[in-house]
Write a structure and sequence with these properties.
By secondary structure, this protein is α/β, with parallel strands linked by helices. The protein contains 14 helices and 14 strands. An 8-stranded mixed β-sheet has the order 5-4-3-2-1-6-8-7, with helices on both faces. Strands 11-10-9-12-14-13 form a 6-stranded mixed β-sheet, with helices on both faces. The radius of gyration is 21 Å and the shape is globular. Pfam families: Acetate_kinase.
Length: 398
């Protein structure tokens, strides 16, 4: 069974083609700057150098046309005919409370996702454009939706509700939804498998750390709490996102600076976080480099991130009544030995002891805790695309 996985952004489209007999990636690529000058497609057949094609790509329909052409290419393609495609799996950011699991896409599902657009105005429209363009290109191929929010639908009310008048929840579905669910699901289950344990017997804190970061408490294989909320803004500070902020601060700044809601939203999402604190960059690698030179604002930004992660780990250990494993994943989590070291520093009271030599690892699965650490600390590279492909296969097979 061959499954194409799509992740559509507002001006980009990432894709991977899987052979699900072996779960091998046959090809992958990225279409950039859709509808913007300088658009291009970068396509890689496994085992071959990438092929980059600069071409005008006005919309997602045109982007998908070029993706399918690349997959069929006699030079760098992997398909002889589109009839070889058995299904398409779509990453969709927000499904609200409508879906707690992946589903076959039909008109009712599309209508439900349209209703969720106000909850994710930057992401869901792009996801829907990709779905509609692919349905038009391959009308007879099953399409499956896999949702970032689905894994967190197991959170209890005490974790997902906000302390605002209840009728706002009833009217607007104002609540904590959480994001990166596909990643948190994958790394928690993979960590259990890697340790030779049943995930149902484990209390795991998963740290998805990248330009966007979220921490999740996974108890017995289910998400019971997560750091992101109604939007992907709260939690620890991120590349350009502010993280947790006192709501009263926002009204104060709005009054003092005469900032309207749209401008405030831009400040909190695009000008804050590591960039806003350091004044240097949104990339932790740049900040670590400057901090090592003695830049005080870089030191502050870096320490705020590590301190924030540490607090969430402790809070979630308390929420679950213990912790068996701590997992680091995504760009920072997989590649920054310093970030992992600083988060785990002085956590021996929780049973977390990190081995500096084992921690010297990048981008591969590893246990980095000491042999006598009660809590296993792991690096598990995330693989959201594989989760989407597996869900798509299972749903289509049924």
């Amino acid at each position: 069974m061959k499954i194409l996985v799509l992740n559509c952004g507002s001006s980009s489209l990432k894709y991977q083609l899987f052979d699900m007999e072996t779960e091998a990636v046959l090809a992958k690529g990225l279409v950039e700057r859709i509808g913007i000058e300088g658009s291009r497609i970068k396509h890689s057949k496994t085992g071959m150098d990438p092929v980059i094609k600069n071409i005008e790509i006005n919309n997602h329909k045109v982007a998908i046309k070029h993706v399918l052409e690349a997959l069929l290419s006699t030079e760098h393609g992997v398909l002889k005919s589109l009839d070889e495609l058995n299904a398409v799996g779509h990453r969709v950011v927000h499904a609200g409370e409508k879906f707690a699991y992946s589903v076959m896409i039909n008109k009712e599902v599309i209508d439900a996702l349209q209703e969720c657009v106000p909850l994710a105005p930057l992401h869901n429209p792009a996801n829907l454009m990709g779905i509609e363009a692919m349905q038009e290109a391959l009308p007879n191929v099953p399409q499956v939706g896999v949702f970032d929010t689905a894994f967190h639908q197991t959170m209890p009310g005490r974790a997902f509700m906000y302390g605002v008048p209840y009728h706002y929840y009833e009217k607007y579905k104002v609540r904590r939804y959480g994001f990166h669910g596909t990643s948190h699901f994958y790394v928690s289950y993979r960590a259990a498998e890697f340790l030779g344990r049943d995930v149902k017997d484990l209390k795991i804190v998963t740290c998805h750390l990248g330009n966007g970061s979220s921490i999740t408490a996974v108890d017995g294989g289910k998400s019971i709490d997560t750091s992101m909320g109604f939007s992907p803004l709260p939690g620890v500070i991120m590349g350009t996102r502010a993280g947790d902020v006192d709501p009263q601060l926002l009204t104060f700044l709005a009054e003092q600076e005469d900032i309207d809601p749209k401008a405030m939203n831009h400040i909190l999402n695009k000008e804050s976080g590591l960039l806003g604190i350091s004044g240097i960059s949104s990339d932790l690698r740049d900040i670590e480099e400057e901090a090592a030179k003695g830049n005080k604002r870089a030191e502050l930004a870096e320490s705020m991130l590590y301190y924030g992660i540490k607090k969430y780990v402790g809070a979630y250990a308390a929420a679950m009544g213990g912790i068996d494993a701590l997992v680091f994943t995504a760009g920072i989590g997989e590649n920054s030995a310093r970030a992992r070291e600083m988060v785990c520093k002085n956590m021996e009271f929780l049973g977390i002891k990190i081995d500096s030599e084992k921690n010297n690892v990048r981008g591969k699965e590893a246990v980095i805790s000491t042999d006598d650490s009660r809590v296993k600390v792991l690096v598990i590279p995330t693989n959201e695309e594989l989760v989407i492909a597996r869900d798509t296969r299972d749903i289509v097979s049924k």
